[in-house]
From TrEMBL:
Organism of this sequence: Clostridium autoethanogenum
Pfam families: Branch (PF02485)
Cellular compartment(s): Endoplasmic reticulum membrane; Golgi apparatus membrane
Protein's UniProt keywords contain DNA repair: no
Protein name per the record: Peptide O-xylosyltransferase
Signal peptide: none
Entry keyword set: Disulfide bond, Endoplasmic reticulum, Glycoprotein, Glycosyltransferase, Golgi apparatus, Membrane, Metal-binding, Signal-anchor, Transferase, Transmembrane, Transmembrane helix
PANTHER family assigned to the protein according to its UniProt record, in alphabetical order: XYLOSYLTRANSFERASE OXT
InterPro entries for this protein: Glyco_trans_14 (IPR003406), XYLT (IPR043538)
Amino acid sequence: MRHAYLIIAHNNWMQLKLLIQLLDNRNNDIYIHIDRKAYGYNIEELENLTLYSNVKVYSVFKNYWGSYNLVKIEIFLLNKAIKCNYSYYHLFSGMDLPIKSQRYIQKFFEKNKGKEFIHFVTDIRLNTDIEIWRRSA
């Protein structure tokens, strides 16, 4: 079962390197978009950090917090990744780190093969977590 990890990054290159190394697995490929405004990183170094995963780094869009470009970047990375027909696509920020090992993650998805893990709510009144938060704020 193959996994594509889509990462949107803008700074903190040491953490991004750690994230790439933690995701390195023969079943994973990694697609990274780095904010076009960013500096201080080396694409070749990032693409050569792994032993098993293929890593592709792009820097096409300028990203601003909360801007529509974030959606454009997600679509851009998905379009790059869907060419390889993965079983699962995972969206990360460059500041995320997995809290479980690759062994655990791979076993989890094998056990839950074919299940989708996405959630959204179109009516805020249906999401009790948000209601609880709103009442406590």
